[in-house]
């Protein structure tokens, strides 16, 4: 009986470890996507520079792992209840990140529920840019 408990405990610990790794250190993205960038206090300024540098270009998508909640705090995180995660934002041309990120033309959470709204916001911007 004791042996079964030990084996069960080891299997359970393995499953929990894998789930923890996937949730907090998994950083793979689908083929063809840019690699996931892990944000920290030393490279946050490069995120701002990249955002501002793309203000008049055709940058399609950027993904970031915000483990230290730097962008979340810039977007208004005050406590555990207001953490910004799984967030999508669509910014029009010319938007610049100064002290805080600029107001998005469209934003929503979670991403999986925002696909249609994101598509519509992008289509609207594309139509406006053709005029």
Biggest sheet architecture:
2 strands, parallel
List low-pLDDT spans: none
The number of distinct β-strands equals 4
Distance between the termini: 75 Å
- Strand order in the sheet with the most strands: 1-2
> What kind of oligomer do you see?
single chain
The average pLDDT score comes to 79
Proportion in β-strands: 5-15%
Helix fraction by DSSP (H/I, runs of at least 4): 40-55%
Radius of gyration: 19 Å
Number of domains: 1
Choose one word for the global shape: elongated
Number of helices: 4
Q: Structural class per helix/strand content?
A: mainly alpha
Element-level helix/strand string: HEHEHEEH
Can you walk through the features of this model?
- The protein is mainly α and 131 residues long.
- It has one domain.
- It has helices at residues 2-24, 44-53, 70-74, 115-130; strands spanning 37-38, 64-65, 88-90, 106-108.
- The strands form 2 sheets. The chain has a two-stranded parallel ribbon with strand order 1-2.
- Helix 2 (44-53) links the parallel strand 1 and strand 2 (64-65).
- The longest helix has 23 residues, at 2-24.
- It is elongated and about 75 Å long.
Keywords:
4 helices, 131 residues, two-stranded antiparallel ribbon, 41% helix, two-stranded parallel ribbon, mainly alpha
Summarize this entry quickly.
The protein contains 4 helices and 4 strands. The chain is mainly alpha-helical and 131 residues long.
């Amino acid at each position: 009986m004791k042996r079964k408990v030990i084996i069960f405990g080891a299997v359970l610990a393995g499953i929990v470890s894998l789930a923890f790794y996937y949730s907090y250190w998994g950083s793979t993205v689908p083929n063809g996507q840019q690699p996931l960038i892990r944000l920290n206090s030393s490279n946050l300024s490069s995120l701002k520079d990249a955002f501002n540098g793309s203000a008049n270009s055709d940058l399609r998508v950027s993904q970031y792992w915000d483990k230290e909640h730097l962008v979340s705090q810039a977007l208004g995180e005050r406590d555990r209840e207001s953490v910004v995660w799984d967030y999508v934002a669509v910014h029009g041309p010319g938007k610049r990140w100064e002290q805080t990120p600029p107001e998005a033309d469209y934003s929503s959470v979670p991403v999986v529920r925002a696909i249609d709204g994101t598509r519509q916001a992008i289509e609207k911007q594309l139509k406006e840019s053709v005029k």
